[in-house]
Each structure stands twice: as C-alpha cells, then as structure tokens.
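Hi everyone,

Forwarding the result from last night's run.
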Amino acid sequence: MLRAYSRLLEQLMLVADLLLVGLCWLLAYWLRFYVAGPPLPYADRGPVADYLLMLLPILLVWSASFRAFGLYRPRRIGSHLSEAVDLAKASTMGVLVLVALMTFFFRGYDYSRVVIVYFWLLSIGVVWFSRAAFREALRFARRRGYNQRFAVVVGDGELAATVVQRMEGRRDVGIQVLGVVGDEKDDTGGVRRLGGYADLRAVLDAHTVDHVILALAHEDYGRLAGLLDAVGDEPVTIHVVPDLLRFASLRGGIEQFEGMPFIHLRESPLYGWNRLAKRVFDFLFSATVLAVIWPVLLLLAAAVKVSSRGPVFYRQERMGLDGRRFEMLKFRTMDADAEVRSGPVWARPSDQRRTGLGAFLRRLSLDELPQFWNVLRGDMSVVGPRPERPVFVERFRQTVPGYMLRHKVKSGITGWAQVNGLRGNTSLEKRIQYDIEYIERWSVWLDFKIIAMTVVRVLVDRNAY
C-alpha cells in the first residue's frame, strides 16, 4: 500500500512540476515584454499565440528531463542542495533541447532569447522552491507519524549503533528502524535485535521492510556477499554505510568517477570555484587594506627604525599550504639579536626580548599588518590557521594528533582559533581542534564573521604578547 501511495505521490509531483514549468514560460514572456525587458512598441511584441504554441513541446521535454535526472526517486535522506543541483542540470538540459527544437522545427518565428533566459532561471528557482516547501511539509507530517517507511540495520558494534542513533534522531525523514540484525548482543541504541546474520532472509519475510542498511564493522566485510544473497531480489532499497568514519576527516565524501564510487577520507573544501573565490576575496581585501593604511604603515616603520637598532621588518620562515615554506613579514618587535641569545622559543608574557615599542605593537597586533603583503602575494590568506615555524611543526606533529591537517588550507592572518581566545600560550590541542573545525565548516560567510570578530578580539585580547 505504501509503495502504491508513493507512486501516486510521484505522479502528482510530476503534474505539479509541469504546471509550474508552464507557468514559468508564460511568466517569462510577461516579464520580457511587459515588465523587465527592453521597451518595445506594442506591434513588435511577441504574439502570445506563438509562445503558447511552445507549451506542449516544453512540457514533453521537461517531463523527460526531470525523469532522466532522477527528480522523482525517493529522497528521504537527500538534501535540498543536492535536489537543487539535479534540478538545475535537468532545466539546463531542457533549455538546450528547447533551443534546438526552435532552431530546426520553428524557423518561422524568432523567439526572444531574453524570454528563454528568464524561463531557464524561473524554471529552476520556482520549481525548487515549491519542492522545498513540499518536502518541509512532508517532514512536518512524518514527525507526527505519517508517510512512514521501515528499515532494518544489519551490523554489529559502534557503526550500527551510530546509524540507529542518527536515524532515530531524524524523525522528519520518515524512516522507522524496526530493529538490528547481527550476531553480537551489544548496545544498539535501544532498538530491538531481530536476529543474527543468518536470520536476515527470515526477518525480511516476517516484516514489511523498505530499506536495508548494511552497517558492517570492518572485520565483518567478508559477510557482505552472503547478506546480499539473502536479500536477493526483494524490492527494498539497499544502503551501505562503510566503516570508515574513524579514518575520515576534512569533509570526507563520495563521488562518481567513470562509473566507480570514490570515497574521500580527507579533502580540503578549497578547490575549484571555492579556491578561486577565496583567492579573489583575499586579493581584493588585502589590496584595499594596504591602500587605506599605507600612511599608518609608514608611520609605524619609522617608529620601529628610530626606536631601536636593527631592520624595520622581521622576516621569519613559516609553514603554510601543503607544508610549503615561506617568509612571513612582521614589524620587528624584539631586539635585533634576540633569537641569537634565546634560540627559537614561543612568545611569553613580559617577554624581556621585546622593545618598548614592540610591546605596544604586539598588544594591538599592529606588528601583524605587513602580512597583508603576504596575502597579496598568495603566501597567506586573510583567514586561516595561523602559520607556525618549521622547527615547532616538526615537534608538534609528533605529539598532537591531526596537527598537519591544518596545512590543507592557506595560513591566515587571523583564524577561528584566535577569535575564540586561543592565541599565544594557550592549549595547542584546542587550537588544532578549532583549526580543523574551520576547515570543515569553511564558507565565505564564516570568513566574514571571523574578520568581524577579529576587530573586537584585538581590543580585548589578553593573550597578545
């Protein structure tokens, strides 16, 4: 009954989507000729009858395209973003086919390209919004026990228990876990055990099951073929949760390559457009800052020069993206021969190596301003994990788990750890935790947030020395 209801729901969704697509075509015509298009005399406006004639081909093309891109497959575990991407692909394909049809079969009339562009954008935005609203309504109903599907989790140990916990915590997807199939008698998150691995076939025969979730521990992978044979041709959806969570870090995920699934255990979020967007932002932001504060930089440089013997800038080797080394610039805040006497050590409160002006510069982080030149050159980013000296990196990578993961992105002038008070002589483990959290959560908006928080933190930070 539930499957029949699901098919009916899919057909109703198709009808609703096509109605919206048709309305988008008419809306695009109205926008072009009556609202947002270049003004035209009434006689030169496209006859509405010619545009109505295109409705039938549009509905046929979009129906095929939406189905081809799987927009009516069950998406209880999917996200709004993945659906938006598929919808954009389907609408783009539909527009390309539509243009081809207009070129070869409708030569008698020249359809407005502005209408086609409006229609393309509207068909993505309107249909996605309607689907998102519909799915949110479904989730609201599922939380109250309607439109349910039923699943069994196959596996033992921590992974199976985690799957049960996550599924139970997402009532809005409408999947009820009937129980766990496995040989061990350990904790399964309060869900009853339905039997051992050998009982899987009997469990499927005795219950109405829509999803089989295989969450086998790594040492049980040898059972996979036998379990799939037990499922046989049962009309259920099979999900495999690989036991790789313990190894995954930095936005692990799965993608298709030539028909093969590739599982990423470690991947930086800054690739492709993300990398380009961050570089463009860094370049424009640092160029703007340098253009605004150059009189301040000249004044500080003169003050450093006349206040103590030695160079204006302090050049120090640091380790950045992918472990590459670069020279980081700072205004000199210590005596010229300070490290000759002390060797490489971390800064401390009341550091005797500082000059009088240096203490003031460090207190307000003014010594860091030349690093905008490092950003402009591409050595650093405005926001990212703070770069460390290679001598300390070699020491920390031996004692702090995950320390080198912070080098999957460019080092920054400021960072998520710093705006959360982890600067100077603070917990290194917590600092690394915040750095990795930043990499996993990265977005342009998070960078803006950190920059805003930095301005406040500079004024109140007691760990700046």
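The chain is about 50% helix and 10% strand.

Cheers,
N.
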